[in-house]
What does this fold into?
Amino acid sequence: MARILLGVSGGIAAYKALELVRLATAAGHALRVIQTPASRRFVGAASFAALSGAPVLSDEFERDPARGAFPGDAAPGHDPLSHLELVRNTDIFLVAPASANTLAKLAAGLADNLLTTCALAATCPLLVAPAMNDKMWAHPATQANVVLLRSRGVTVLEPATGRLASRGEEGAGRLPEPGALLEAIEALTRPPVPAPAADLVGLRVLVTAGGTREPIDAVRFVGNRSSGRMGFALAAEAAELGAAVTVVAANVGLPRDPRVTYVDVETAAQLRDACCAAFESTDVLLMAAAVADFRPARSFAGKLKKGADERMRIELERTPDILSGLAAARRADQTLVGFAAEHGAGALQYGREKLARKRLDAVVVNDVSRTDIGFDAADNEVTILTAAGTTQIARASKPQIARAVLDVVVALRAAAAAGAPEPAA
Ligand code: PMT
It folds into this structure.
């Protein structure tokens, strides 16, 4: 059970925050809600109060009838300052929806309402879920605010893409669904599991995660459906096993692991540069990112106009094969693991071909023709190919799959250290 302070700012997506309160209380969490004055124009305090079972505050000078206590907790004997007491008692502060205006205030460190004042006073994890019009989200000022907040350790979720509030408009800017918000809260508040055997102690592990985006113009790109879950699970499990982990994250909006170092990139070229910079000091490379094989040969600085033509041609050019490039420069003491996103029949054969052609120690094959595993799914089902054998891992959560991949890495390194061929699985 977590104590969750929910800050609601002004936007049409404020109605989704009601469903989050319902889901979170049903899951056993205790919530207090604070609202910006603008958010009350979209959803009233009475709805939040009814669902959370606690008073809702909006003004930093307002007296809190619950004196900063969460449902189920005893109120203190004195009358504390509401914003200080609320943030002192909470395990996590979620701002959802975070409007462009509130996001900018958080980045600038303003304290001009109860929500922003609480954010400044909070020492707990801060989770921000932006929701706004796609053009406001894409604006360089908003993007700079996101980068600044992330650099301070704030978890800023990527907004979902789809239909927006303004009629007929589509794009990136939707508040993630309440279930996804609850998932993010629980990931950040889960108590740490006691440390198991630390098989990767002293090793530096480089993981790539997510999907690259290759710009067509200032607002459009060629991309793919990778969420980054597989890569982030590998990173978390490697950190659990004692490794020093760096993740090169391509457009991943998932919560960050405080034990891991992140380098954020967008394009295949940036991903390659980040990997090349870290490769020399890497012991284990886990290449889970879905890297674009092709990118627009030319990207336009502004937004392409529709014009009168019914068709538009975009010429694509090959991107460099990053993994093959790294493998060509590898040392014998490094362990290189590639992933193979294969579609339907022949997957293992293509995987074996990648193992040999890219000079890798292992290839993790997943069938991306299925919707219950692979891209953007919570689970995966993989076959791990090495020179000595094949390990089949039945459908399991991505953290469990990650652990199985790392077990193979540990076995490969043990066999290499002993000068023996790696044992067949
Ligand atoms: O992120 P999730 O939603 O959790 O989904 C996980 C996943 C399905 C993306 C992941 O499990 C996966 O399969 N990643 C590899 C996707 C991919 O690009 O596969 P590929 O068969 O096209 O490439 C083979 C390998 O070469 C990969 O390790 C890839 O990172 C690498 N590659 C590919 C192209 C390129 N230009 N450079 C590369 O280094």
In short: The domain at 196-300+313-418 is CATH 3.40.50.10300 (Rossmann fold).
